[in-house]
Amino acid sequence: MRPPVILLLLGFLLPASQTFAFKANDFKTCAQSGFCRRGRALSARALAAGSSWRFPYSIDPSSILLAPDQASFTASVKSALYPEVNFGLDVRLHDDGVVRVRMDETGGLRKRYDEAANWALVAPPSISRDIVWKVGKGTVHAVYGEKKNIEVVVEFDPLRVTLLRDGVEQVVLNDRGLLHMEHFRTKDDTKPVTIQDGEGEAQTTLQLNNRAWFEGEEQDAWWEETWSSWTDSKPKGPESLSLDVTFPNHRHVYGIPQHATNLSLPTTTGPDAGYTDPYRLYNSDVFEYLVSSPVSLYGSVPLMHAHNAKSTVAIFNAVGSDTWIDVGRTESGTETHWISESGILDVFLLPGPTPTDVFAQYTRLTGTAPLPAHWALGYHQCRWNYVSSDDVRSVQRRLDDENMPVDAFWLDIEYSEGHKYFIWDKKNFPDPVEMIKDVEALERRMVIIVDPHLKRDSSYPVYKAASDLESLVKPKSGSGEYEGWCWPGSSSWVDFFNPKSWDMWVSFFKTKSVDGRWSWTESTENVGIWNDMNEPSVFNGPEISMPRDNVHYGGWEHRDVHNINGMLFTNQTYNALMHRSDPPKRPFVLTRSFYAGSQRFGAMWTGDNVGTWEHMAIGIKMVLANGLGGFGFGGSDVGGFFGNPDPEMLVRWYAVGAFSPFFRAHAHIDSKRREPYLLDEPYKSMLRDVLRLRYAMLPVWYTAFREMSATGIPILRPQYVVFPEDSEGFAIDDQFYVGSSGLLVKPVTTRGATSASVYLSDPQIYYDYFTFHTYPAPAKKVARGRTVTVPAALHQIPLLIRGGSIVPTRERPRRSSALMRNDPFTLRVALSSDGSAAGEIYLDDGEGYGYTNGEFVWRQFGAETKKGGWGKGEELKIWSKDWARQGGSNDVVVYNPANAFANSVSGVRMERVIVVGVGSRPTVVSVNGGSTVEWEWQGGIGYGATTESKAGVLVIRDPAVGIASDWQIAVVF
Ligand code: NOJ
After folding, report:
1. Is 535 an active-site residue?
2. Which intervals hold domain Glycoside hydrolase family 31 TIM barrel (predicted)?
3. What spacing in Å lies between the alpha carbon of 638 and ligand 1's midpoint?
């Protein structure tokens, strides 16, 4: 985190025009990290050895133990390098076909950290009792799947695990023989060993350095590691884990967020490598990050998807320590190499076979994002800092004066006295509860920052309580409190791995003190919380974080849990907010750091970006990648955190924000004020229009959130997710679909643009959302997609509706989303090239948990032309009916369409139905087989058009039908 200029000025003067640059020296490269160096050297040795490379790890066939029901098996694994060391393998198949492979050192000097999956997983997945493992000669294998076309083969010698579909290899573990679990040893471990030669026959007794062919000549950084001015004491010695994962038939891999890079990951090895270092997963406070880099950023999700036109598969490597991942390309596939500092091998193979299946498989493991509070989908106004209660009130007033909708006002760290979170700086915020209530009076919310570092001041009740409970992270000695430097100066960190801290954290967020414990009485039950700096960021620590030899609950070193640490903080904040009221309201928590499973606890943002066009563009890819990693509720700081974007950039950036699941403007303390009302015309009106567009589309966003919360499918869907068979779309990451709505957007991220090229995969008609200009389906069925040019001057957003979609909106401008609660709806019916359309809407009270008991409205819209033409007497029908899909463990509860929420909105109507692609003037429009309604036809071409032109549009006014009721509109020609 870059300190404010005021702090820098104490040391030296900044040049008049600030430059922003990634501080490469603050972070290690692979070559500067002992275990990564060892891992990469291992793969270099294997490459050099070619086919003569020996794989040391093998299964002892006599040790295979099938579970009584044959649904899983365990076995002993031996390493030819260290025959005296034992490893245990455990392989199981889940009900949904996911394969879990675990390997741990058994009976060793110490225990390896084996709890990463416990934190990531929602519940222990159920093992399939229908799938039976069979022990064969040299393998254990299982065949499964509806068509019995999936097979997992575990080979004994060398140990190798292969997942096949239809006889085609999908994923192979240890295909290249890089598997290596550095066992715990003592410094003088030089005992002779026995090793098998390549044929598995001759026995040779070797000394330690005879393992050099595999482990290298030196004990490189085994027992201590110095980097920059820090020394890592490494009390446990070497314990890293190396695993190669090959996708022999997939040339595109995605995921492993968070990196500022393309969605389809560039390679890091081989002659044409995109980067020279591996991708790194080590949660770090990297401000002003590079826009194309494998460097680790704030969050880590060790999940990688591999995709080709016939299949998507994935692997989830549940490890919480520093992890580097090399990606290389072969002629037909992709080779990856995962090198982790510590932990056990705990890998899940997700068999797909479609992207949608992989999302379901992954979120069945780590959970889906809960449905957020509805207000959280509105516009968030933030800055470091709104400096006083009156400042907050004035920003609210000025947005209102300009009729600019907003749902949340944020307070950064300067609200607190001396950066003691929860404690108000009463000089500037003399009346915090009144201020919050002034915001809430207009049905908006405040979001206030609470960081994980606590000022070491015994008069600070929060620190005092945590210290008294001995629930702070310990230094390497294992006793006392670790002390580091952060915003408040000398600080300590709550150890959220310690269950004692959980109850304490709950008590802090209560708005009334319970049992005399300190709690945040100067707050309300509606305040949302921003958890920042939770990598954790430590200004004077190695790589701006904690020393790896710090000690957490259970005696685990920080190195073991580093990437999980940030998630536990948001987990507990989320939990605390849940306990704040009875009945609970949906908590809102924003996190900077995250791990697999963090999606269960709120939203994320992409950290300290810079106000440049490149950062605007990369933010889109990062949010897309995060969605693939299960964490779809994300966004980037609109406007860029650092710098002073000019009005053109700001207008474009608001359009990016309006099409991000999380839409927040934020700015560094040294940047100029840039609230939307400060812009001159015409920019100010453009921002107002963009904000209103977001609000008009809230029904689309909320419906997409529902789907994500039920199925794990991300809200922003990249091209390959929607069209998995179209290889032309596999590398596209600058346009995306919003949920299942059929809306396709390509935000403009370059200066001076007047048009944008949009790629369309499918032979379907598309319409411009605003002008109804048509982009017809190709006349003949073609194998490939096409690129169309869409107008994109500054006041325009390239936004298309795919033919066949029905999009619900609310178009009355309001000041906040809550004020739209009873507003009528508009439906845009975009006819497909065969004259039909479908869509849906999901609504609930947006705040409580009634929806989990069936309190919601979930409707399906449809449209169909009777004979597919406009001839006399022909008919177009449009209808709304209750969504029949009900039940299912990973979907919405069974519900009663006449529930209390549905009844409460029974008076909310459809004020307009706009049918796009109507090629001739109707004669009559009637509702529910009876009364005729007002309509207007704006002439243009129909859905079957073959040339670009303006579509004919039928606008049906106030058909007097309700959003929560069944209806049918008949249009007769
Ligand atoms: C770092 C965060 O990334 C940034 O958004 C915030 O404004 C500062 N910390 C100050 O809290």
Report:
1. yes
2. 370-704
3. 14
